[in-house]
Design a protein that fits this description.
Helices cover 68% and strands 0% of the residues. The chain has 104 residues and is mainly α. Helix 5 (61-72) crosses helix 7.
């Protein structure tokens, strides 16, 4: 998993999450499908304590927080069609409960 951070894989996934802010309505379906996979991968990566430390230290969680805020501000009928929101809640909850080591 350290290799994923070293190869800049996590920052690329976070950049995909940031795309939601500039996405046109007709492109949301395709970006939404990509975001489902991105959130699944981030969820797996955040299972490790050191990856959670990395996400907090580099402020990568801000983009996920913005994504959740964007999802929650959608109309109700669109919101219920967004499949990755429960996993996004899980990732954010993991980080809220996470205790960073003293050296971080």
């Amino acid at each position: 998993m350290h290799l994923m951070r070293k190869l800049k894989f996590i920052p690329i996934l976070i950049e995909i999450c940031k795309r939601i802010q500039v996405c046109h309505k007709n492109e949301f379906k395709h970006l939404g499908k990509a975001l489902e996979y991105v959130i699944k991968i981030i969820n797996i990566l955040c299972g490790l304590r050191e990856n959670r430390n990395y996400m907090l230290q580099t402020n990568r969680m801000a983009a996920l927080n913005d994504l959740l805020n964007w999802c929650l501000s959608r109309p109700t009928h669109l919101f219920y069609g967004i499949n990755f929101v429960p996993q996004l809640f899980h990732i954010l909850t993991l980080h809220v409960k996470h205790r960073t080591p003293y050296e971080c």
